[in-house]
Amino acid sequence: METQLEEEEKRMEGRLVNWLSGEVGANSISLDKAGYVEASALASLRQSRRMGFSADMILTVGQKSKLLEVDENRIRRCQKEGKKSAIIKLLEFWFGVHNLRRDKFLGKLLREAADGMVSVDKILTFNKLKVLNSTKEELLSAMEAVPSLLKLSENRERVGRVKPIEEEPPPLGNPDQRTVYIETLSPETTHEKIAELVEKFGKVGYISMPRFKDGAIKGFAFVEFELESSAKACVEQRTLKSTHDGELIVISKLQWLAMKEELKSARKERKERGMHARQVQNFGYPIGTLVKVGGLSAAVKRQEIYDALQTITPVAFVDFKRSTPEVCFARFYTASSASKVEEALSGGRFQIGSRKVVARILTGQEESDQWKIIHKQTEEKEEKKKKRGDGPATKEDELGTEEPARQELAGNKDERSETDLGESEARLNENVQGDSKGVKRPAEEDSAELRESKKKKKKKTT
User: Fold this and answer.
1) Which of 9, 229, 282, 442 is the 20 to 30 A CA-CA neighbour of 384?
2) pTM for this one?
3) Quick one: which of 246, 228, 243, 160 has its CA closest to 196?
4) Between 2-20 and 55-64, two packed helices, what is the crossing angle to 10 degrees?
5) pLDDT less than 50: residues of the chain
Protein backbone atom coordinates (compact mmCIF):
# COMPACT_ATOMS: atom_id res chain seq x y z
CA MET A 1 0.00 0.00 0.00
CA GLU A 2 2.89 2.33 0.82
CA THR A 3 4.47 1.65 -2.58
CA GLN A 4 1.24 2.57 -4.36
CA LEU A 5 0.98 5.78 -2.32
CA GLU A 6 4.57 6.69 -3.15
CA GLU A 7 3.87 6.15 -6.86
CA GLU A 8 0.82 8.41 -6.67
CA GLU A 9 2.81 11.14 -4.89
CA LYS A 10 5.63 10.83 -7.43
CA ARG A 11 3.18 11.19 -10.31
CA MET A 12 1.57 14.17 -8.62
CA GLU A 13 5.01 15.76 -8.03
CA GLY A 14 5.78 15.43 -11.73
CA ARG A 15 2.51 17.11 -12.65
CA LEU A 16 3.14 20.02 -10.30
CA VAL A 17 6.69 20.54 -11.62
CA ASN A 18 5.25 20.47 -15.13
CA TRP A 19 2.68 23.15 -14.40
CA LEU A 20 5.17 25.34 -12.52
CA SER A 21 7.71 24.98 -15.35
CA GLY A 22 5.39 26.41 -17.99
CA GLU A 23 5.07 23.09 -19.81
CA VAL A 24 1.35 22.68 -19.25
CA GLY A 25 -1.19 25.17 -17.93
CA ALA A 26 1.33 28.00 -17.33
CA ASN A 27 -0.93 30.50 -19.07
CA SER A 28 -3.61 30.04 -16.41
CA ILE A 29 -1.21 30.19 -13.43
CA SER A 30 -0.35 33.59 -11.94
CA LEU A 31 2.99 33.61 -10.06
CA ASP A 32 4.01 36.28 -7.61
CA LYS A 33 7.40 38.03 -7.65
CA ALA A 34 9.03 35.22 -5.70
CA GLY A 35 7.69 32.60 -8.12
CA TYR A 36 5.04 31.27 -5.73
CA VAL A 37 1.44 30.37 -6.56
CA GLU A 38 -1.46 29.56 -4.24
CA ALA A 39 -2.06 25.80 -3.87
CA SER A 40 -5.79 26.48 -4.29
CA ALA A 41 -5.08 28.00 -7.73
CA LEU A 42 -3.33 24.79 -8.82
CA ALA A 43 -6.17 22.71 -7.40
CA SER A 44 -8.69 24.71 -9.47
CA LEU A 45 -7.03 23.74 -12.80
CA ARG A 46 -9.21 21.52 -14.96
CA GLN A 47 -6.60 18.74 -15.14
CA SER A 48 -6.06 18.97 -11.38
CA ARG A 49 -9.79 18.60 -10.71
CA ARG A 50 -10.00 15.67 -13.11
CA MET A 51 -7.19 13.86 -11.25
CA GLY A 52 -8.62 14.71 -7.82
CA PHE A 53 -5.77 16.98 -6.60
CA SER A 54 -6.87 19.05 -3.62
CA ALA A 55 -4.95 22.03 -2.17
CA ASP A 56 -4.00 20.01 0.93
CA MET A 57 -2.65 17.15 -1.19
CA ILE A 58 -0.60 19.61 -3.26
CA LEU A 59 0.96 21.17 -0.16
CA THR A 60 1.72 17.72 1.35
CA VAL A 61 3.50 16.55 -1.81
CA GLY A 62 5.33 19.89 -2.05
CA GLN A 63 6.70 19.53 1.48
CA LYS A 64 8.09 16.05 0.72
CA SER A 65 9.51 16.97 -2.70
CA LYS A 66 13.09 18.06 -3.40
CA LEU A 67 11.92 19.80 -6.58
CA LEU A 68 9.25 21.97 -4.90
CA GLU A 69 9.20 24.52 -2.07
CA VAL A 70 6.23 25.34 0.19
CA ASP A 71 5.59 28.58 2.06
CA GLU A 72 2.37 28.37 4.11
CA ASN A 73 -0.38 27.93 1.47
CA ARG A 74 1.89 28.72 -1.47
CA ILE A 75 4.10 26.51 -3.60
CA ARG A 76 6.82 27.08 -6.20
CA ARG A 77 9.46 25.20 -8.14
CA CYS A 78 12.72 24.83 -6.19
CA GLN A 79 15.04 27.82 -6.81
CA LYS A 80 18.19 26.10 -5.52
CA GLU A 81 19.45 25.29 -9.01
CA GLY A 82 21.37 28.08 -10.72
CA LYS A 83 18.88 30.44 -12.33
CA LYS A 84 21.50 31.88 -14.67
CA SER A 85 22.48 28.47 -16.06
CA ALA A 86 18.80 27.63 -16.57
CA ILE A 87 18.27 30.86 -18.54
CA ILE A 88 21.37 30.21 -20.65
CA LYS A 89 20.08 26.74 -21.59
CA LEU A 90 16.78 28.26 -22.70
CA LEU A 91 18.54 30.95 -24.79
CA GLU A 92 20.79 28.37 -26.46
CA PHE A 93 17.74 26.35 -27.41
CA TRP A 94 15.56 29.28 -28.58
CA PHE A 95 18.28 30.90 -30.70
CA GLY A 96 19.73 27.60 -31.93
CA VAL A 97 19.75 26.79 -35.65
CA HIS A 98 17.47 23.76 -35.31
CA ASN A 99 14.80 25.60 -33.33
CA LEU A 100 14.76 28.76 -35.48
CA ARG A 101 14.26 26.69 -38.63
CA ARG A 102 11.03 25.39 -37.08
CA ASP A 103 9.95 28.18 -34.70
CA LYS A 104 7.29 30.19 -36.54
CA PHE A 105 7.13 32.95 -33.91
CA LEU A 106 10.72 33.79 -32.96
CA GLY A 107 12.11 32.85 -36.36
CA LYS A 108 9.62 35.16 -38.07
CA LEU A 109 10.48 38.07 -35.74
CA LEU A 110 14.21 37.75 -36.51
CA ARG A 111 13.70 37.35 -40.26
CA GLU A 112 11.34 40.33 -40.58
CA ALA A 113 13.47 42.70 -38.45
CA ALA A 114 15.73 44.99 -40.47
CA ASP A 115 18.57 44.59 -37.95
CA GLY A 116 17.92 40.85 -37.45
CA MET A 117 17.18 41.39 -33.77
CA VAL A 118 14.24 41.09 -31.38
CA SER A 119 13.27 43.12 -28.30
CA VAL A 120 14.67 41.85 -24.98
CA ASP A 121 11.33 42.73 -23.39
CA LYS A 122 9.61 40.36 -25.85
CA ILE A 123 11.90 37.49 -24.79
CA LEU A 124 11.13 38.29 -21.15
CA THR A 125 7.43 37.48 -21.79
CA PHE A 126 8.18 33.83 -22.64
CA ASN A 127 6.44 31.45 -20.20
CA LYS A 128 9.52 29.57 -19.05
CA LEU A 129 11.26 32.79 -18.04
CA LYS A 130 8.13 33.82 -16.14
CA VAL A 131 8.25 30.55 -14.22
CA LEU A 132 11.88 31.19 -13.33
CA ASN A 133 10.79 34.65 -12.15
CA SER A 134 13.57 36.18 -14.26
CA THR A 135 14.27 39.90 -14.21
CA LYS A 136 15.48 41.90 -17.18
CA GLU A 137 18.95 42.29 -15.68
CA GLU A 138 19.22 38.52 -15.10
CA LEU A 139 18.19 37.89 -18.71
CA LEU A 140 20.72 40.44 -20.07
CA SER A 141 23.46 38.89 -17.92
CA ALA A 142 22.67 35.43 -19.33
CA MET A 143 22.69 36.81 -22.90
CA GLU A 144 26.13 38.33 -22.36
CA ALA A 145 27.37 34.97 -21.08
CA VAL A 146 27.02 33.41 -24.59
CA PRO A 147 28.92 35.92 -26.82
CA SER A 148 29.56 33.23 -29.46
CA LEU A 149 25.80 32.88 -30.03
CA LEU A 150 24.13 36.19 -29.10
CA LYS A 151 24.85 39.90 -29.43
CA LEU A 152 23.12 42.88 -27.84
CA SER A 153 22.41 46.26 -29.38
CA GLU A 154 24.26 49.35 -28.05
CA ASN A 155 21.38 50.32 -25.78
CA ARG A 156 20.97 46.67 -24.67
CA GLU A 157 17.30 46.72 -25.66
CA ARG A 158 17.52 44.25 -28.56
CA VAL A 159 19.19 40.88 -29.04
CA GLY A 160 20.05 38.78 -32.08
CA ARG A 161 22.29 36.00 -33.33
CA VAL A 162 25.97 36.73 -33.98
CA LYS A 163 25.63 34.76 -37.21
CA PRO A 164 22.23 35.29 -38.88
CA ILE A 165 20.27 32.12 -39.50
CA GLU A 166 20.32 32.82 -43.25
CA GLU A 167 24.12 32.55 -43.26
CA GLU A 168 24.15 29.18 -41.54
CA PRO A 169 25.00 26.29 -43.90
CA PRO A 170 22.08 24.00 -44.73
CA PRO A 171 21.90 20.82 -42.65
CA LEU A 172 23.99 17.98 -44.00
CA GLY A 173 22.11 14.93 -45.19
CA ASN A 174 18.62 13.96 -44.16
CA PRO A 175 17.60 15.35 -40.71
CA ASP A 176 15.52 12.20 -40.17
CA GLN A 177 18.75 10.15 -40.15
CA ARG A 178 19.93 12.17 -37.14
CA THR A 179 16.60 11.88 -35.32
CA VAL A 180 15.41 9.21 -32.88
CA TYR A 181 11.91 8.36 -31.69
CA ILE A 182 11.33 7.77 -27.95
CA GLU A 183 8.04 6.42 -26.59
CA THR A 184 6.26 5.34 -23.39
CA LEU A 185 6.82 8.78 -21.83
CA SER A 186 4.80 9.65 -18.76
CA PRO A 187 2.59 12.79 -18.68
CA GLU A 188 5.11 14.46 -16.35
CA THR A 189 8.03 14.25 -18.81
CA THR A 190 9.69 17.56 -19.77
CA HIS A 191 12.20 18.67 -22.41
CA GLU A 192 14.84 18.97 -19.72
CA LYS A 193 14.34 15.39 -18.55
CA ILE A 194 14.69 14.03 -22.10
CA ALA A 195 17.78 16.17 -22.69
CA GLU A 196 19.39 14.76 -19.55
CA LEU A 197 18.81 11.22 -20.84
CA VAL A 198 20.26 11.64 -24.35
CA GLU A 199 23.00 14.25 -23.96
CA LYS A 200 25.53 11.48 -23.22
CA PHE A 201 25.24 10.32 -26.88
CA GLY A 202 26.12 13.73 -28.35
CA LYS A 203 24.95 17.32 -28.74
CA VAL A 204 21.19 17.65 -29.07
CA GLY A 205 19.86 20.08 -31.65
CA TYR A 206 16.09 19.85 -31.17
CA ILE A 207 13.51 18.04 -29.04
CA SER A 208 9.89 17.80 -30.13
CA MET A 209 7.13 16.59 -27.81
CA PRO A 210 3.73 16.43 -29.64
CA ARG A 211 0.77 17.36 -27.44
CA PHE A 212 -2.98 17.02 -27.36
CA LYS A 213 -5.25 20.08 -27.47
CA ASP A 214 -5.40 20.23 -23.67
CA GLY A 215 -1.60 20.49 -23.49
CA ALA A 216 -0.87 16.96 -22.29
CA ILE A 217 1.94 15.15 -24.13
CA LYS A 218 1.05 12.23 -26.41
CA GLY A 219 3.56 9.89 -24.79
CA PHE A 220 6.38 10.11 -27.34
CA ALA A 221 9.08 12.54 -28.48
CA PHE A 222 11.57 13.13 -31.31
CA VAL A 223 15.18 14.03 -30.56
CA GLU A 224 17.36 15.45 -33.35
CA PHE A 225 21.13 15.25 -32.77
CA GLU A 226 23.82 17.40 -34.34
CA LEU A 227 25.54 14.30 -35.75
CA GLU A 228 24.17 11.13 -37.32
CA SER A 229 26.64 9.04 -35.30
CA SER A 230 25.06 10.31 -32.07
CA ALA A 231 21.61 9.16 -33.22
CA LYS A 232 23.00 5.71 -34.15
CA ALA A 233 24.63 5.35 -30.75
CA CYS A 234 21.32 6.20 -29.06
CA VAL A 235 19.32 3.73 -31.20
CA GLU A 236 21.79 0.93 -30.48
CA GLN A 237 20.79 1.12 -26.81
CA ARG A 238 17.19 0.18 -27.81
CA THR A 239 15.97 1.26 -24.37
CA LEU A 240 16.74 4.12 -22.01
CA LYS A 241 16.31 3.91 -18.24
CA SER A 242 14.72 6.94 -16.63
CA THR A 243 14.16 7.55 -12.95
CA HIS A 244 10.87 9.31 -13.79
CA ASP A 245 9.52 7.27 -16.76
CA GLY A 246 11.01 3.83 -16.20
CA GLU A 247 12.22 2.04 -19.34
CA LEU A 248 11.79 4.00 -22.58
CA ILE A 249 11.78 2.45 -26.08
CA VAL A 250 14.11 4.02 -28.68
CA ILE A 251 14.08 3.51 -32.48
CA SER A 252 15.28 5.63 -35.41
CA LYS A 253 12.84 8.07 -36.96
CA LEU A 254 13.30 6.37 -40.35
CA GLN A 255 12.14 3.10 -38.82
CA TRP A 256 9.22 4.91 -37.17
CA LEU A 257 8.21 6.47 -40.51
CA ALA A 258 8.30 3.06 -42.20
CA MET A 259 6.12 1.57 -39.46
CA LYS A 260 3.72 4.51 -39.72
CA GLU A 261 3.40 4.09 -43.50
CA GLU A 262 2.82 0.36 -43.09
CA LEU A 263 0.11 1.01 -40.50
CA LYS A 264 -1.46 3.65 -42.74
CA SER A 265 -1.55 1.23 -45.70
CA ALA A 266 -3.08 -1.50 -43.53
CA ARG A 267 -5.80 0.88 -42.31
CA LYS A 268 -6.52 2.00 -45.89
CA GLU A 269 -6.74 -1.60 -47.08
CA ARG A 270 -9.06 -2.48 -44.19
CA LYS A 271 -11.25 0.49 -44.99
CA GLU A 272 -11.39 -0.39 -48.69
CA ARG A 273 -12.32 -3.98 -47.88
CA GLY A 274 -15.09 -2.74 -45.66
CA MET A 275 -16.28 -0.29 -48.29
CA HIS A 276 -16.27 -3.04 -50.94
CA ALA A 277 -18.23 -5.38 -48.67
CA ARG A 278 -20.81 -2.70 -48.02
CA GLN A 279 -21.03 -1.86 -51.74
CA VAL A 280 -21.70 -5.53 -52.55
CA GLN A 281 -24.30 -5.64 -49.79
CA ASN A 282 -25.96 -2.54 -51.31
CA PHE A 283 -26.02 -4.06 -54.83
CA GLY A 284 -23.36 -1.61 -56.01
CA TYR A 285 -25.27 1.52 -54.95
CA PRO A 286 -23.21 4.31 -53.30
CA ILE A 287 -23.00 4.22 -49.50
CA GLY A 288 -24.48 6.94 -47.30
CA THR A 289 -26.78 8.44 -49.96
CA LEU A 290 -30.16 7.32 -48.58
CA VAL A 291 -32.02 9.74 -46.31
CA LYS A 292 -35.19 8.97 -44.37
CA VAL A 293 -37.50 11.99 -44.13
CA GLY A 294 -40.15 11.93 -41.40
CA GLY A 295 -42.93 14.12 -40.07
CA LEU A 296 -44.68 14.62 -43.42
CA SER A 297 -48.39 15.43 -43.58
CA ALA A 298 -50.88 12.98 -45.11
CA ALA A 299 -51.81 15.52 -47.81
CA VAL A 300 -48.28 16.09 -49.10
CA LYS A 301 -47.45 15.05 -52.65
CA ARG A 302 -44.31 13.44 -53.98
CA GLN A 303 -43.55 16.42 -56.23
CA GLU A 304 -43.73 18.77 -53.22
CA ILE A 305 -41.13 16.68 -51.39
CA TYR A 306 -38.90 16.54 -54.46
CA ASP A 307 -39.08 20.32 -55.08
CA ALA A 308 -38.39 21.16 -51.43
CA LEU A 309 -35.30 18.91 -51.19
CA GLN A 310 -34.10 20.13 -54.56
CA THR A 311 -33.63 23.61 -53.04
CA ILE A 312 -30.89 22.14 -50.81
CA THR A 313 -29.07 19.83 -53.24
CA PRO A 314 -29.85 17.83 -56.43
CA VAL A 315 -32.15 14.86 -55.73
CA ALA A 316 -31.72 11.53 -57.53
CA PHE A 317 -35.06 9.96 -56.54
CA VAL A 318 -37.86 10.17 -53.95
CA ASP A 319 -39.51 6.91 -52.85
CA PHE A 320 -42.94 7.94 -51.51
CA LYS A 321 -45.95 5.68 -50.85
CA ARG A 322 -49.48 6.69 -50.02
CA SER A 323 -49.72 3.75 -47.61
CA THR A 324 -47.14 5.46 -45.36
CA PRO A 325 -47.47 9.19 -46.19
CA GLU A 326 -45.71 10.41 -43.04
CA VAL A 327 -42.35 8.94 -44.18
CA CYS A 328 -40.39 8.90 -47.44
CA PHE A 329 -36.92 7.88 -48.58
CA ALA A 330 -34.84 10.24 -50.71
CA ARG A 331 -31.75 9.18 -52.63
CA PHE A 332 -28.95 11.60 -53.48
CA TYR A 333 -26.01 11.42 -55.85
CA THR A 334 -23.26 11.65 -53.21
CA ALA A 335 -22.84 11.03 -49.48
CA SER A 336 -21.86 14.69 -48.96
CA SER A 337 -25.18 15.78 -50.50
CA ALA A 338 -27.05 13.47 -48.12
CA SER A 339 -25.12 14.94 -45.18
CA LYS A 340 -26.07 18.44 -46.31
CA VAL A 341 -29.77 17.50 -46.31
CA GLU A 342 -29.51 15.83 -42.89
CA GLU A 343 -27.93 18.99 -41.47
CA ALA A 344 -30.49 21.31 -43.10
CA LEU A 345 -33.41 19.27 -41.72
CA SER A 346 -31.96 18.82 -38.22
CA GLY A 347 -33.88 20.30 -35.32
CA GLY A 348 -37.12 20.63 -37.27
CA ARG A 349 -36.00 23.84 -39.02
CA PHE A 350 -37.10 22.79 -42.54
CA GLN A 351 -40.70 22.73 -43.75
CA ILE A 352 -42.28 20.61 -46.49
CA GLY A 353 -45.90 21.38 -47.18
CA SER A 354 -47.62 22.38 -43.95
CA ARG A 355 -45.26 20.62 -41.54
CA LYS A 356 -41.70 20.89 -40.29
CA VAL A 357 -39.81 17.69 -41.06
CA VAL A 358 -36.69 15.89 -39.85
CA ALA A 359 -34.23 13.62 -41.64
CA ARG A 360 -31.42 11.18 -40.96
CA ILE A 361 -29.02 9.22 -43.14
CA LEU A 362 -29.61 5.47 -43.15
CA THR A 363 -26.66 3.39 -42.01
CA GLY A 364 -25.76 -0.23 -41.38
CA GLN A 365 -28.45 -2.89 -41.67
CA GLU A 366 -31.23 -0.34 -42.09
CA GLU A 367 -29.50 1.08 -45.16
CA SER A 368 -28.90 -2.41 -46.62
CA ASP A 369 -32.56 -3.40 -46.05
CA GLN A 370 -33.81 -0.29 -47.85
CA TRP A 371 -31.47 -0.95 -50.80
CA LYS A 372 -32.88 -4.50 -50.99
CA ILE A 373 -36.40 -3.06 -51.24
CA ILE A 374 -35.29 -0.63 -53.97
CA HIS A 375 -33.48 -3.41 -55.83
CA LYS A 376 -36.54 -5.68 -55.64
CA GLN A 377 -38.83 -2.91 -56.94
CA THR A 378 -36.45 -2.32 -59.84
CA GLU A 379 -36.44 -6.02 -60.74
CA GLU A 380 -40.27 -6.16 -60.61
CA LYS A 381 -40.52 -3.19 -62.99
CA GLU A 382 -38.11 -4.85 -65.41
CA GLU A 383 -40.17 -8.09 -65.25
CA LYS A 384 -43.38 -6.21 -66.06
CA LYS A 385 -41.70 -4.62 -69.07
CA LYS A 386 -40.65 -8.03 -70.35
CA LYS A 387 -44.20 -9.40 -69.98
CA ARG A 388 -45.62 -6.50 -72.00
CA GLY A 389 -43.00 -7.09 -74.67
CA ASP A 390 -39.64 -5.59 -75.30
CA GLY A 391 -40.07 -1.89 -75.78
CA PRO A 392 -38.34 -0.12 -78.72
CA ALA A 393 -34.74 0.61 -77.98
CA THR A 394 -34.19 3.28 -80.65
CA LYS A 395 -36.17 5.65 -82.85
CA GLU A 396 -35.41 3.50 -85.91
CA ASP A 397 -36.86 0.45 -84.13
CA GLU A 398 -39.93 2.49 -83.25
CA LEU A 399 -40.52 3.50 -86.84
CA GLY A 400 -39.85 -0.03 -88.00
CA THR A 401 -42.41 -1.61 -85.66
CA GLU A 402 -45.21 0.93 -85.73
CA GLU A 403 -45.27 2.05 -89.37
CA PRO A 404 -46.09 -1.41 -90.85
CA ALA A 405 -49.07 -1.67 -88.49
CA ARG A 406 -50.36 1.66 -89.77
CA GLN A 407 -49.83 0.51 -93.33
CA GLU A 408 -51.72 -2.71 -92.60
CA LEU A 409 -54.57 -0.73 -91.07
CA ALA A 410 -54.68 1.53 -94.11
CA GLY A 411 -54.68 -1.55 -96.35
CA ASN A 412 -57.66 -3.06 -94.53
CA LYS A 413 -59.58 0.19 -95.01
CA ASP A 414 -58.87 0.08 -98.74
CA GLU A 415 -60.01 -3.55 -98.95
CA ARG A 416 -63.27 -2.70 -97.16
CA SER A 417 -63.98 0.21 -99.47
CA GLU A 418 -63.30 -1.97 -102.48
CA THR A 419 -65.71 -4.62 -101.13
CA ASP A 420 -68.43 -2.03 -100.50
CA LEU A 421 -67.96 -0.64 -103.98
CA GLY A 422 -68.27 -4.11 -105.47
CA GLU A 423 -71.52 -4.79 -103.61
CA SER A 424 -73.07 -1.48 -104.68
CA GLU A 425 -72.14 -2.13 -108.30
CA ALA A 426 -73.68 -5.60 -108.05
CA ARG A 427 -76.95 -4.17 -106.67
CA LEU A 428 -76.99 -1.57 -109.46
CA ASN A 429 -76.52 -4.25 -112.04
CA GLU A 430 -79.40 -6.27 -110.54
CA ASN A 431 -81.65 -3.17 -110.70
CA VAL A 432 -80.65 -2.57 -114.24
CA GLN A 433 -81.33 -6.20 -115.13
CA GLY A 434 -84.70 -5.99 -113.34
CA ASP A 435 -85.66 -2.91 -115.39
CA SER A 436 -84.86 -4.66 -118.57
CA LYS A 437 -87.33 -7.46 -117.66
CA GLY A 438 -90.11 -4.95 -116.83
CA VAL A 439 -89.87 -5.27 -113.08
CA LYS A 440 -90.24 -2.07 -111.03
CA ARG A 441 -87.32 -0.93 -108.94
CA PRO A 442 -87.86 -0.81 -105.19
CA ALA A 443 -87.63 3.00 -105.16
CA GLU A 444 -90.43 3.32 -107.68
CA GLU A 445 -92.67 0.89 -105.74
CA ASP A 446 -92.21 2.91 -102.59
CA SER A 447 -93.15 6.15 -104.31
CA ALA A 448 -96.41 4.60 -105.69
CA GLU A 449 -97.47 3.44 -102.22
CA LEU A 450 -96.85 6.94 -100.85
CA ARG A 451 -99.04 8.46 -103.46
CA GLU A 452 -101.90 6.05 -102.66
CA SER A 453 -101.67 6.81 -98.91
CA LYS A 454 -101.79 10.55 -99.56
CA LYS A 455 -104.97 10.14 -101.61
CA LYS A 456 -106.66 8.18 -98.80
CA LYS A 457 -105.82 10.88 -96.27
CA LYS A 458 -107.35 13.59 -98.47
CA LYS A 459 -110.61 11.62 -98.77
CA LYS A 460 -110.89 11.25 -95.00
CA THR A 461 -110.40 14.98 -94.40
CA THR A 462 -113.08 15.90 -96.91
Assistant:
1) 282
2) 0.43
3) 243
4) 100
5) 1-2, 24-26, 80, 392-445
